Amino acid sequence: MTDVTLVSEQPFGEGGLVSRLYQLPNGLKVLLLRDPSAPVFAYQTWFSVGSRHERQGKTGIAHLFEHLMFNETQNLPHGEFDRRFELAGGGTNAATWVDWTYYQDDLPASELALAVSLESERMQNLLVRERQVETERGVVISERQMRVDDDVDGFMSEELFRLAFTTHPYHWPTIGWMQDIRNLNLDDCVSFYRTYYAPNNATVVVAGDIDEAQTLELIGKHYGGIAAQTIPAPASIVEPPQTEQRVVRFRKPVLTDKILMGYKSPAQHDPDHIRLELLGEILIGSASSPIYRDLVIEKEIFSSLGGSVTPFRDPGLWEIAASLHRGHSADEGLALFDQHIAHFVAHGPTLEQLERARARTLTSFYLSLKTAHGKASSLGESQTTLGDYRELWRVPQILRSITVEELHAVAQRYLRPEQRTVVIAEPSGEPIDEDEADGDEESEA
User: Fold this and answer.
1) How far is CA 109 from the centre of its chain?
2) What phi, psi does 423 have (nearest 5°)?
3) CA distances for 280 relative to 326, 411, 423, angstroms
4) At the fourth CATH level, which superfamily is domain 246-440?
């Protein structure tokens, strides 16, 4: 068996579970959490590569590679990877984002050897050839056309980040610019695979009904011979401070006005990140939140309103999306929204508002850890984005300690108009897709 080193361990909550991080000599990190509560397990491979690791002219390659990874390998013909998982009663998927790409498998407890064998195979033996690249390029082009070019919400999201970030790689979309997708070549893809899909750039997370010793033995056997690679350090780019509000308007095939705005927000490792999330929960997170209650329920200005703080390694955005009811404009909605924000910046939250939002947020946090899949995802993202899976448990600690005064200070720091970017879509008069029309009238809390 390949030598495996125990790096660290930590109790996983208060239920007696323990998460342990190991490392192989080639740099592969292995994060295990034994949870025998159900005869299943989640097997996830997190690579520290996303769209932020790309460069101008080569955007979209991280996402393209997510598609390529489901193709044939030296020992598996096309389609065999998915077929074997399906025959075993499992499921597999993947996702690419700004800071990471991960691959997920959910299987019965008896199928651990299958997961280790198949995932190690595509980490080291993927066939990257012209035919595969051209096939998946076509798939990604169609995906971009459907989710961005022909979708108002996707278009607005892309424009928000393009406008909000002038220097940082968060400026470009994870799916990539269309011209770049078309121009990526075989050498780009081969180089990307050999560089970033290396054991020393990955963390394998296994959570569920597993035997730790057996899991380590299997992983050491199948991954131990994969060579480490030299991983380029991501560019250390600091986005310049935003000193004035940025607003852009588009005429789109929508039934009513739509708004997408973003206030500059702290990085995920910053305690202010959790505080701003809680602030958002207070303001718009439920039917009892003051802005939601006033503008969606009572005045019926907005038909929908929701938001979230981007969990990025570097500073991102507090994103807020709203759709207007017929007869109301984006300018009207923004003016009323801003009145609430100004009042909150001036006076801060009440203790009752804080306690209600804290309870909802803690409930959501613990519910996300209910399944083996949720446990593995939370551990993997913390390890990959924050550099330490143990950071996961700072979330409830910080939430429980937040005071009214801290939230007031966070509101004054971040809810500033000069730090906001706004994208507005107004009806163009074009024919409207039925799904789009339905979406304009939905409400969400």
Assistant:
1) 27
2) -115, 130
3) 26, 10, 19
4) Metalloenzyme, LuxS/M16 peptidase-like (3.30.830.10)
Locate tokens 């913390």: which residue?
Answer: 382
pLDDT tens for the 445 residues of the chain, in order: 568 999 999 999 888 999 999 999 999 999 999 999 999 999 999 999 999 999 999 999 999 999 999 999 999 999 999 999 999 999 999 999 999 999 999 999 999 999 999 999 999 999 999 999 999 999 999 999 999 999 999 999 999 999 999 999 999 999 999 999 999 999 999 999 999 999 999 999 999 999 999 999 999 999 999 999 999 988 789 999 999 999 999 999 999 999 999 999 999 999 999 999 999 999 999 999 999 999 999 999 999 999 999 999 999 999 999 999 999 999 999 999 999 999 999 999 999 999 999 999 999 999 999 999 999 999 999 999 999 999 999 999 999 999 999 999 999 999 999 999 999 999 998 777 655 454 444 433 3
Residue 357 identity (one-letter amino acid)? A
Containing 43, the helix (H) or strand (E) segment is strand 40-47
Give the H/E segment covering residue 411.
helix 404-414
Cα–Cα distance measured from residue 344 to residue 362, given in angstroms and rounded to the nearest whole number? 23
Is residue 174 within 8 A of residue 53, CB to CB? The reply is no
**With contact defined as beta carbons under 8 Å apart, do 125 and 278 qualify?**
no
Residue type, 347: H
Place of tokens 């303001």: 283
CA dist 376 and 89 (Å) reads 19
Encode 346-367: b = buried (16+ Cβ within 10 Å), e = exposed: eebbeeebbebbbebbeeeeee
In this structure, which CATH number among 3.40.50.10800, 3.30.830.10, 3.90.1200.10, 1.10.260.40 belongs to the domain 5-223?
A: 3.30.830.10
The dihedral of CA 92, 55, 153, 295: what is its sign? positive
Return d(Cα 441, Cα 443) in angstroms, integer.
7
Cβ atoms of 17 and 376 closer than 8 Å: no
Task: Write out the H or E segment, with its range, that includes residue 103.
Answer: strand 101-108
